[in-house]
Fold this sequence. Notes:
Distance between the termini: 81 Å
Helix content: over 70%
Strand content: under 5%
Order of helices and strands: HHHH
Number of helices: 4
Mean pLDDT: 84
Structural class: mainly alpha
Low-confidence stretches: none
Radius of gyration: 22 Å
Shape: flat
Amino acid sequence: xIAPDEQADHEQVKALQDEVDQLRQALVSHALVDQxxxxxxxxxxxxxxxxxxxxxxxxxxxxxxxxxxxRCLVEWPARRKLPEVIRRALxxxxxxxxxxxxxxxxxxxxxxxxxxxG
Length: 118
């Protein structure tokens, strides 16, 4: 029979192992997303923040998890195939990111302009 303190230690070790596994998965997912952003910015001639915006847009408008969109984009050059839903969403996502950046720049100019003494 396991003593109560041994059981608590075992549960704590298990919880820590689960946390380490989750952190490892998060690191892999983060690296994959970063690589996908690189694909999008290269393809669309975007800045990194625009690449992130395009990736989010594709995920939201295709109902495909972000890490799955990222995986497909990163594997695209080697597989020479992109799932149809992502292939169709990619141009719109790039244009959305460009438009979002232009809108943000316009908003920034308006805020700076309104802060000046008249």
